[in-house]
Give the backbone structure.
Amino acid sequence: MYLHLPLWGAYTLVYFGTVWVTYQRKLKCGVPILAITLMYILCFISTADSLQRAYSAYIFHAGTASEFFLTSSDGRTLNDTSYGLLSAVGDALILWRLWIIWSRDIRILVVPCLLYIMGIACVIITVVIDIKYASNPNGHFAVEWLYNSATEGGLGISVALSCLVTALIIGKIWWVRRQVVKMLRRTGAENQNAQTTVHRRVTMILVESGALYTLVQAAYMASLLSRSTVATSVVSNICPKVLALAPTLIVLLQKNMDEEYDVIVLGTGLTECILSGLLSVEGKKVLHMDRNDYYGGDSASLNLTQLYRKFRPSQSPPAELGRDRDYAIDLIPKFIIASGELTKILVHTDVTRYLEFKQIAGSFVYRDGAISKVPSTEMEAVKSSLMGLFEKRRAKNFFSFLQNWKDDDPVTHQGINLDKDSMKTIYEKFGLEPGTQDFVGHAMALYLDDDYITKPARPTYERIILYTSSMARYGKSPYIYPLYGLGELPQSFARLSAIYGGTYMLDKSIDEIVVDADGKFVGVKSGNETVKAKQVIGDPSYFGGVATGATGGAEGGKVRVVEEGKVVRAICILKHPIPNTENADSAQIVIPQKQVKRKHDIYIAAVSSTHNVAAKDVYIAIVSTIVETDRPEQELAPGLSLLGPIHDKFVSVTPLYTPTASGQADNIFITRSYDATSHFETVVDDVHDVWKRVIGAPLVLKKREEVNVQE
């Protein structure tokens, strides 16, 4: 009895501390709090029963009170019954923790749940026998064999279940920590986590895994198998408190972990996931939330069912298109420039180990009513129909000038100042024809319009050098593409964030962006919960952009985002390669604005089953441009006409939002919408911009080995 009251007191403090913490932080109680409350009640019943028996022993058996209390079986029914129920509730809570640790993967619960059901059956048998024969001990002895078998069998199953669950949780925690160590070594950031001491890590693992719970169950089973009445009595009187204490500690730890963050990131688009991953690597505590039940946001890759649900909710995908899982159709048509900034981030963060890449087969340009391949070799350049013989010579001189340029060598400048002279001046110097200017500015420098011509030439020079170096890196084209679609990119950065301790919540409504009296960010409200953080980063749809379930865009009348235009996109399913592209399994086609009398270019991005994004012999082509009229779909007609027969088509018009403020005054940082460009360079520019505003210093990337790309 000397351990009864101290253990009960400690357990009571932990229980009410957990309830108080939950109430103070206004967290949703849910099933875990209900479970530990039930365990507290059962433990109270068990403790009260033990105290009552102790009182009776000292009153009626004063001389042998201790011996009588430890060896007598009188009145033990209530204690044993409450312990069985306590064990059943505790097992359920440990299973819940396993589900949480394993990222809510229901498959991990199959075997543990079978064991749990068997254990519950044994508990029911013992409880029924205890209740039925409580007033008739002789009847109890008549089924002693069944009672003992159910008791020991149920406890054995509970121990086996606890050991299995504990091993799975410890294994998962160990694996994640191992990945963290590897990532820290690769990034040279080992010292950032050096503050986590060994004893603290061990303690956290023991609590997280419920190892204490397993040890208690094992101790009780050992006392039963010893057939020692004294040992069994001592352990059975101590066990309920310790048994209930372990799951309560788990719930308390879980609530503590969910209290406050350094940064909350809203939306799992590529921009947001890159920032989330980089901030986690930096040591920030990040909570990443999304209203959707899938990663990627506007940059997601959808299977057929998701695609039809998004564009045609009342229609199911036709069976002739094949299996649903064969498709990963991008919502945003973009390719990765092989030597571009996104490639550098992928390599710097080691995210490339989660991804496989394949080259885009060719880059094409529309000119004078025909599609022509952008030359990738000297032989293709000689044969190309893009330029006449004399124009090819002038273009060669132009490209030689760019390739030989050295800022510190005036001889290479040929009288040109890239920071002052416009591209128009350079074109005129080398006598390039308007068609060649279109080709250079739109197919190589990848400008959306002709505004660049009158601006200083350096940005264009840098874009052309990036294009040519990317072309030389792998051949064929300057672009690479991740197998299984662009949606793999945000998922991979999400994985990076998770390895460094980031927390993810999908399918979570964002009901309000909470600010204080001064308009500064406080937290995010979702349902009855408000999660607090120092800063928030999110895509425009969470701050006033058009999206289902988005509010908080104009707290106190403040407009946080403005619309700068619209992009129209048509996702087309084809049963053939795009005509006149040499039967390429993938391609980019640029239609310069002047070729179709527009202000902005039209882009076509095509991929196929070769990239694991469609069924065999199915091609996905996405045509996009900036909206200029009140008939957006008709503006895509020049691009759609190049595709040949279209099996199915899904058209969307998306607003382009930009933030109205830097966010440094109120700690609310908003990213930009994905523009109509065919690459990710503007996305990375946005990442750099937001990073500098959030951290207060430029993002510095280390040079590493290059990406492995399939031919």
Q: What stands out?
A: Residues 656 and 674 are 7 Å apart (CA to CA). The two ends are 75 Å apart (CA to CA). The longest strand covers residues 561-574.
